[in-house]
Amino acid sequence: MSAGRENGDAGRPEIHRGNGRTFVALAVAAAIPVLLLSGWVATLMAQQERGLTRSAAVASAARVAERVASDIATQIAVLRAEAASASLDRPDLAAFYAEAERLRREHPLWETVELAGPDGVQVVNLLRSLDDELGPTADRASFDAVVRTGRPVVGGIGPLGPISGKRLVALRVPVVRDGTLRHVLSVGLATSAVSAILRDAGAPEGWVGTIVDAAGNTIARTRAEAEELGHPAGAALLAAIRREPQGFYTGSTLEGPDVEVVYRTLKDTGGWSVHFGMPVATLNAPVSRSYLLLAGGSVLSIGLGLALVGLVGRDMAQRRAGEQARFALALRSSEEQGAVAAEAAELGTLRWDTAEETVTASRRAAELLGWEAEVPEGREMTADADIAFRAVDAGDRERMAAEMRRSLAEGKPLDVEFRVFQAGSVSRWVRLTGRAPRLRQGDPSGLVYGVVSDIEPRKRAEAERLDLLRRLGEAQENEQRRIARELHDQVGQTVTGLSLGLKGLERLLDAQETSTEAGRQIQWLQRLAGEIGRDIHRAAIDLRPTALDDLGLREALATLLREWGQRHGVRSDLEFVGDASRLPAAVESAVYRIVQEALTNVLKHARAATVSVCVDRRPDEVQVIIEDDGVGFEPGSGTSPSEARTPTEPRLGLSGIRERLTLLNGTLALEASPGVGTTLFVRIPVTPAA
């Protein structure tokens, strides 16, 4: 026995040494993947950072392109409206000069407005009086393009103007009367405004932004603008524009470092493009560092791998025994981690057995489902299915049971939200998600494994959001009603007084036999005052129609469709079906605004000849059908059947309609086909008491 103890004592150091070698081998084995994974993760993160930087550049370029193109389109629209002015019919240069001066004050970006004949000689320039000699227009290339094509033209940065003394960007539109080009109307935009748009795009520090025109000349730049303004851009920039309308290229800047440039061509600007340059060294620095880290980790991993081979060869037998223990430990650890994760996320787990009609729930699930019995920490509780159903709000029980049956029958995931009663409190919203596993033959197992989560904060936030939207909508309608009343009662009466005063002045001039020119001016002012009065009346009606408050929805819609059809030359018809009694004020306002928004979409996108509106009043709901015979579209595609550049689906208008319907628990259905037309189906529930 003494000898045996001695042998046992002698064997213990060898066991300890074997355990030590095993520990070292495990440490080395764990270090190798950690090193490789760290390098790989660092490389992925660096590449992701580089991709995010490039994406930010693309977003900045797109943002600037959209903003500049939108501003240019707005200026062109205003200029085209001025080209159709009656003062250019005769032409009456003095009247046109006054109108142009007023427009320039309303548009700070305009340096000047000029009117030139087809030969290029200016007849009006706001920087000079009507009596001055003006000479030929600057930037003759864009001028000749208007004369040649008879269409609006966005010019590049022009030469130094002989009158303005600045390099301006010319926007030109033709003035056509009786099919003949009479004049060319132009405005000169300041390049500083374009530069401000570029600087406000939000590009990161160190980036260089540039906007060039179709000829490749610099219009705006975030740095060294004074030195580069009007100069030709680099060869790499010009080659990229000729190759593709948007993308990336690599070049250099005046500041020295190489840059990777993202660019995008602006729509409807005659070939303008915006460019953002990112320093290549800054962009690639994280990737280079990650490659170095990955290489160092690989070398170190190889050394550790060689050491591991030696240890594994000596301790294979001990590692086999250790593997068994580690597997058992990993299994227990996984179970513990799952429990900890569910507890940290405040989730509850349950198993619903439809065959036994029992529900087994964790402590957290029992709390969320409102069970009164206490469940010990870390334990589960089994209860009858009736207890679980009784805790569910009566209005949600049938829906929950239907979802449970559907999941069991079809094997689809279960996802249902419902309210439960809790002791001493009001009902609370919870969410049950889970699955019903299938047997091998495809038969339902009768079991549902699910997770219960608390969604009361989200539901409360949704309710608060809807309440806020409802109050904002009411405030908007009240403010529009007040503004409409002010326009009609104050401004409208003032314009009426102006018209009466002009009429009296006309009679006074006739009595004194004043010149006919003064009489014509008075008549022109009377017509202008009449147009202003009609515009004010139309604006007041658009803000808040008095017929909606005084006469109801039927008369308000009839007036809207009649005036809209006469104004835009589109046939329209209105039909009311069902009960003729008044709807609640909120519903009437919503229906009127929805029809108004739909008519706006028809005018912008549909190119329709006829629009039909049907209002069907039913006992528990009101249904509105709005149909047109326009070009239609493919729902979800966003492409036009006739012109690829025409935005056919009124996404913003539809979102506004859906927002209004959300406040009233209404729904919107859309039917459309290319070349057939579009139909909107609106349903709004109305309680019988209303």
UniProtKB/TrEMBL annotation:
Class of enzymatic activity (EC top level): transferase
Spans traversing the lipid bilayer: 22-46, 291-312
Keyword Magnesium in record: no
Domain Histidine kinase: 591-688
Annotated stretches, region: Disordered: 629-651
A Gene Ontology term for the protein's cellular component: membrane
Reactions this protein catalyses: ATP + protein L-histidine = ADP + protein N-phospho-L-histidine
InterPro entries for the chain: HATPase_C_sf, HATPase_dom, His_kinase_dom, PAS, PAS-like_dom_sf, Sensor_HK_TwoCompSys, Sig_transdc_His_kin_sub3_dim/P
Keywords carried by this UniProt record: ATP-binding, Kinase, Membrane, Nucleotide-binding, Phosphoprotein, Transferase, Transmembrane, Transmembrane helix
Pfam families linked: HATPase_c, HisKA_3
Protein name: histidine kinase
Organism: freshwater metagenome
